[in-house]
Write a structure and sequence with these properties.
Chain lengths: 454, 202
C-alpha cells in the first residue's frame, strides 16, 4: 500500500455531505492534507494556485457543470501535469459509457459507495502506471516528441509494458499527431482498432485522416463513431470540423447546435458553432454564440483577441458595423501591436469594413505586409472582403487565389464567391478559379512526368 | 426525466449516494476507534450492488444495455474481487484463492464483469465447504473467468437463474469482438468437486 500521508488531496463536490464523506475517506487512507472545492470555479481557482497530487472529483458538480468538463478545461489550459492523479467519483453507472468512448479520460473513476481500501487499491494502481510512464511524461513535457515516441516503442516491447499496451499505443498515437506526423498516428490507431473497436481510437483515426486532408475517409470514420456513441460530444465537434472542410456548413452547424444544447457551458464548442454558423451564413446564430462566449467564458486568459475579432466579424455579417466597431476598439493599441500578422490583418480588415474612416488608413498601412505573406484562412477571408470593398483588386485576388489553391478551398468557396458577387466581380472570381485549376493540372502532370522519369 | 429508465436510474443514483455517506461514516468510526466493522460495510456494498444489478437487469430486459468496454488489467480485477469478498468469506471460514494467468490488458466492461464475479463468488461461498477459487486464463483469444467451489454442486442443471445469473448470461452475450460472442456456462465440472461458473469472453 502506498504512502499517502504526504500527498495533497483536493476533494471537489458541490454537496456538503458528500464532500465530507470524501474527505473522511481520504483521511482514512492516510491523507494529511485535504483541501475542498465546492464548485467548478472554486476547483479551477484552487488547482491554478497550487496543483494537488490527487484530485477526487464528483462527476456531477451542479450548475450545469460536470467533472468531465472540469477535466477537459484543465487539460485545455494545461493546468494538469501528467503526474497529478485525477480520479472521478460517481454514483452514475452512466459515466462508464463516457469513459469507454471519449478520448480525454481521467486516470480512473470509482463508483460510489466504495471503501477506503478500494480507493487505496485504485490509487496504488494509478501510481504504478504513472511510474511506468514517468520517462515518457518527462520527454513529452520537454516537447521532445521523437524521444517520447522512441521510449514508448521500447516500452511496448518490454515485459513490464504488457498490462499497458493499449495505453502505450494511445499515448503514441497522440504524440505522433502532436509531432506533426498524422500518417504514423493513423497507423497506430489502426493497430489499436485491429484489436478492438474503441470509439476513441476510431475518432482518433478520423482526426489523423482530417489532418492529411483525406476528408471523405475522415467523414466516413467519424460518422461511424457519432452513430454508435451519441454521448461522445467531441466526436460531434470533429464531425463538424470535417463537414466544414468539405464545404457542408449547414450540416456542421446542425451537428454543433445539437450538442451545444446539451453542453451549454462548453465555450470551445460555442466558438466552433460560431465558425460554422458564419460559414453557413447564419449571422445571428454566430453573433449569439460569440456574445455568449465573451460574456461567460470566465477562465482568466480564456478570451483571446481572436474571439473579439470573431465577435466583430459576426456583427459585420449581421449588418451591424457600429457594434463591430465598439468591439474592435476595446482592443488597445498595445494589444493590437502584439498580435501576429494574420490577426493584425484581420483587425485592420474588420475595422476598415466596420468604420472606413477609422480603418482604411490602418488597412492601407498593412498592405505591403499583406501582399508578401500568406496569412491564415480566416485572416485571408477578412482581407479579401476588405480589399474588395476598397477596390484593391490586386490584394483581393492574391488572397482569393491562395485560398482557392489551399486545403481550405471547399470550406471558403461559397463565402468568397458571394463577396466577389457583391462587388459585381463574379467573372473575375471565375477567372481566378480557372487559373488555380489549370495550375493544379500542370503540377499534377509535372509530378506524373517526374515520377516516370524517375 | 423522460423515461422510466431515467427515473429508476436517478433513484438508484440517489440511494447509492446515501449508502456512500453511511459507508464513509462507518469507515471514519472504524479509523477513530480502531474498530473493524467490515461486515457492516459489506452489507452496504452488497445492497448497492443489488441496486446496480437491478438496473442492469431492467436494461437487459429492455434490450437497451450497452457494455462500456475499456482495456482492463485482470490482476487488478481479481484484486478487487478479493478485496470485496475476502473478509466476508473469512467470517464463514471459507478461503478464496485466486490464480490469474493473463497479464495483458483485455477489453471488457470492468464494472459489469467485476459485479458478475462478485456475485458468482458470493453464490459459491454459500455452498462451499472450505474453498472458492477464481481463475483467469486465456486460450485461442478467448478469456476464461472461472469461479469454482468444493460444495455439493448445482442440484439441477441448468440451475434456476436468479437475477444475478440472468444478468451475467445476457451481459456475457453483449461482449462481442470480431463476430465472436461471450457466453456463460454453469456446470458441476469443478476441479474442486463442486459447482463451476465459467464466463468466456472474446
Amino acid at each position: 500500500m502506498g504512502d499517502y500521508s504526504k500527498k495533497r488531496f483536493l476533494v471537489i463536490d458541490d454537496q456538503p455531505m458528500a464532500r465530507e464523506a470524501l474527505r473522511s475517506i481520504a483521511q482514512t487512507v492516510g491523507a494529511f492534507s485535504v483541501e475542498f472545492a465546492s464548485s467548478y470555479q472554486d476547483a479551477i481557482f484552487r488547482i491554478r494556485n497550487n496543483v494537488p497530487d490527487i484530485i477526487l472529483s464528483d462527476y456531477m458538480l451542479g450548475d450545469g457543470r460536470s467533472g468531465q468538463q472540469l477535466l477537459e478545461e484543465l487539460r485545455r489550459f494545461n493546468m494538469l501535469p501528467d503526474e497529478t492523479i485525477f480520479m472521478m467519483v460517481t454514483g452514475e453507472q452512466a459515466y462508464e459509457q463516457v469513459v469507454s468512448a471519449v478520448e480525454l479520460v481521467p486516470d480512473d473513476y470509482i463508483i460510489k459507495p466504495f471503501s477506503p481500501d478500494k480507493l487505496v487499491l485504485r490509487l496504488d494502481r494509478i501510481t504504478a502506471k504513472k511510474q511506468f510512464f514517468a520517462g515518457f511524461y518527462r520527454e513529452k513535457r520537454k516537447k521532445d516528441f521523437a524521444a517520447a515516441i522512441a521510449l514508448l516503442k521500447k516500452q511496448n516491447e518490454s515485459e513490464a509494458g504488457r498490462p499497458y499496451r493499449y495505453e502505450i499505443l494511445r499515448q503514441q498515437a497522440e504524440t505522433q499527431l502532436a509531432n506533426g506526423d498524422p500518417t504514423s498516428a493513423e497507423a497506430t490507431y489502426r493497430n489499436i482498432l485491429e484489436k478492438y473497436e474503441f470509439p476513441w481510437a476510431r475518432a482518433g483515426m478520423a482526426r489523423t485522416l482530417h489532418r492529411q486532408s483525406r476528408h471523405i475517409e475522415a467523414r466516413q470514420e467519424i460518422e461511424r463513431v457519432v452513430a454508435s456513441t451519441p454521448h461522445f460530444f467531441d466526436a460531434a465537434d470533429l464531425k463538424a470540423t470535417i463537414c466544414m472542410a468539405q464545404g457542408e456548413h449547414a450540416e456542421a452547424q446542425r451537428v454543433l447546435d445539437e450538442v451545444a444544447k446539451r453542453t451549454p457551458r462548453n465555450y470551445l464548442r460555442k466558438r466552433l458553432l460560431a465558425e460554422a454558423a458564419t460559414l453557413n451564413g447564419d449571422t445571428e446564430a454566430a453573433r449569439t454564440a460569440m456574445t455568449d462566449v465573451i460574456a461567460n467564458d470566465t477562465m482568466p486568459g480564456a478570451i483571446a483577441p481572436e474571439d473579439r475579432l470573431a465577435l466583430a466579424r459576426s456583427h459585420i455579417n449581421s449588418g451591424d458595423p457600429i457594434s463591430a466597431e465598439k468591439v474592435l476598439v476595446t482592443l488597445r493599441d498595445g494589444e493590437v501591436r502584439s498580435l501576429n500578422l494574420a490577426e493584425q490583418a484581420s483587425f485592420a480588415s474588420l475595422l476598415a469594413l466596420a468604420s472606413p474612416e477609422r480603418g482604411i488608413s490602418k488597412f492601407t498601412g498593412l498592405r505591403p505586409a499583406m501582399l508578401s505573406s500568406q496569412l491564415t484562412p480566416i485572416a485571408q477571408m477578412d482581407v479579401v472582403r476588405a480589399a474588395l470593398s476598397v477596390k484593391d483588386h490586386e490584394l483581393a485576388d492574391l488572397h482569393a487565389d491562395y485560398l482557392m489553391s489551399s486545403h481550405d478551398a471547399k470550406k471558403v468557396f461559397g463565402n468568397i464567391r458571394a463577396q466577389y458577387a457583391l462587388h459585381g466581380r463574379e467573372q473575375d472570381f471565375r477567372t481566378i478559379q480557372k487559373e488555380v485549376a489549370l495550375r493544379r493540372i500542370h503540377q499534377e502532370a509535372a509530378a506524373h512526368t517526374a515520377a516516370i522519369d524517375f | 426525466m423522460n423515461t422510466l429508465l431515467d427515473m429508476l436510474a436517478s433513484g438508484i443514483h440517489d440511494a447509492k449516494n446515501q449508502l456512500f455517506l453511511a459507508e464513509s461514516l462507518i469507515a471514519a468510526t472504524e479509523a477513530e476507534h480502531g474498530l473493524s466493522l467490515g461486515e457492516a460495510r459489506y452489507a452496504i456494498e452488497a445492497a448497492s450492488d443489488r441496486l446496480s444489478r437491478t438496473l442492469a437487469a431492467y436494461q437487459v430486459m429492455r434490450h437497451s444495455a450497452t457494455p462500456a468496454i475499456t482495456p482492463v488489467i485482470l490482476e487488478d480485477l481479481c484484486d478487487e474481487v478479493m478485496l470485496a469478498q475476502k473478509l466476508h468469506l473469512a467470517t464463514r471460514e471459507i478461503k478464496l484463492s485466486i490464480d490469474c494467468q493473463v497479464f495483458d490488458a483485455w477489453p471488457l466492461d470492468r464494472d459489469l464483469v467485476t459485479d458478475m464475479l462478485n456475485n458468482a463468488v458470493q453464490n459459491a461461498g454459500r455452498c462451499a465447504r472450505s474453498t472458492v477459487k477464481l481463475s483467469v486464463t486465456s486460450e485461442d483469444e478467448w478469456l476464461y473467468l472461472v469461479v469454482e467451489d468444493d460444495g455439493p454442486g448445482f442440484p439441477t442443471l441448468p440451475p434456476a437463474f436468479g437475477i444475478g445469473l440472468l444478468v451475467a448470461d445476457r451481459l456475457a452475450a453483449l461482449h462481442v469482438q470480431h463476430g465472436r460472442q461471450g457466453s456463460l456456462t454453469l456446470s458441476n465440472e469443478s476441479s474442486l468437486g463442486g459447482a463451476r461458473f465459467e464466463l468466456r469472453l472474446p
